[in-house]
Every structure is written in C-alpha cells, then in structure tokens.
Amino acid sequence: MQALIDKHADQPGFGAAVRRATGLGSADPLLPGELGSGSYGRDERQLFARIKDTIDRGEAVTACTKNQLEDADNVAEAEKGNAGETKVSGLAAQHEYGVLGYTPHAPQPGDPIKIQLRNPWGNYGRKYITQLGKQKGVAVNGGDGVFW
How far apart are CA 28 and CA 97, in angstroms? Predict the structure, then answer.
C-alpha cells in the first residue's frame, strides 16, 4: 500500500486522500506494516493495550486461531492435530492458547511487540526466522509449547 501511495504521490490529491483514508504516514496509522516491522495499525495497538492491561491485573488471557490458517505463504503441514486441526507454521487452526506475557513492557513507536503463548498440547509451537528480509513463522515440535 505504501509503495502505491509513493508511486502516485505527485498526482494532485491522490496521496493526501489515501493518507487520510488509511492513516499511512500519520502518528496513528490505521493499517499495520510487514510482520516484524514494529509498525502496527490502530486495531493491533488497541488489542495489545487490552492484553497488557489484563495481564498486568493478574487476570487470565487466552487467544484463539481462526478456522483456516493456510494461505499461499503458509502451507498446511501433513500431520494434523489430535482433533484433526490443520497445523500451519507452528499454529493449529481452531485452537486456544494461553497468553503468558508480552514484551516490551513500555513499547515505543517502531518497537516490535511480542506476545508469549502456550499451546496446551505442551509440545508444539513456533519460532520466527528471517527469510529474504522478512519474518516467517516455522513450526517447532517438542519443548513445552511456550513460544513468542
């Protein structure tokens, strides 16, 4: 989206109109950046604030995945979960995770925010690697099911 705006920014009114509509380039953008970029949209920042406040109060937080996780960049693994859930890059579809923590505790603009999850299966999670300059989730089998 940013590339499109930059390409047409010199057209009268186009760049300004798109920036107003999307919030791109503002201190309070509506749309997030690339995974791992530290650029979050309004919805992501509001959700993080709710998670942070709830954990800070000592209350339990859970997160669930959607019914369908696979897409062109994230192909389903051959092995399924115990109840037939699709597994993609260390996450199971239609699955609950315990939210254990977050970092950083006082994020500044541009800081990547991480949420620590625990898979109740206790032996399946994910880690992130950098591939072609972008963050990508990959499955981790074994361990205690805790991951960022």
Answer: 29
Q: Is the dihedral of CA 85, 45, 148, 132 positive or negative?
A: positive
Strand partners, 45: none
The three-state secondary structure class of 15 is helix
Q: What is the pTM (predicted TM-score) of this model?
A: 0.71
CB 56 within 8 A of CB 91: no
Distance from C-alpha of 147 to C-alpha of 112, rounded to nearest angstrom:
15
User: What is d(CA 6, CA 96) in angstroms, rounded to the nearest whole number?
Assistant: 40
Give the C-alpha separation, 103 to 24, whole Å: 25
CB 3 within 8 A of CB 15: no
3-state secondary structure (DSSP) of residue 82 = coil
Contacts for 26 with CB less than 8 Å, ≥ 6 apart: 19
Averages of pLDDT over each 10 residues, the chain, 148 residues = 55 54 52 67 86 95 87 78 85 93 83 89 89 84 90
Q: Report d(CA 49, CA 130) in Å as an integer.
A: 27
Sign of CA dihedral 82, 83, 89, 94: negative
